[in-house]
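Today's session is about reading a structure prediction critically. Students often jump straight to the picture, but the first step is always the sequence itself: look for stretches that repeat, for charged clusters, for runs of hydrophobic residues. Only then move on to the predicted structure, which in these notes is written as discrete structure tokens rather than atom positions. Here is the chain we will use throughout the hour.
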Amino acid sequence: MSVVEQYARAHIVTDADVRVQDELDAVPVRLRYDPEKDPRSVGVGLPGAGREWTFSRELLEQGLRAPAESGDVRVWPCGRVQAVVEFHSPQGVSVVQFETKALQRFLRRTYTAAAEPVTG
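Below is the predicted structure for this chain, in token form.
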């Protein structure tokens, strides 16, 4: 089984960031899936955040169709072509807006990686 890592362009709005931010600029957000570490979870790393949020792959999939939440993570569709992932931490809230197709492509890759035979 192989690790899936994909960068997706996204718009980030955060109340923890005191810098003036141009919300029109998309930034690369890292999506990661490591089936050997945890086959049921995905990770999202925001640029400059210094941490990765890990949450259930099922939550991400459900949130593309209807609002879903678990713990500090909420996911919901935003119109026909976008999805929002919201992260809560002691430092504040980060709202990340993705193109739905990028998240769907990532999820497809995770299912392919999880189905790969173990060699060795």
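Discussion point for the tutorial: The first helix runs from residue 57 to 63.
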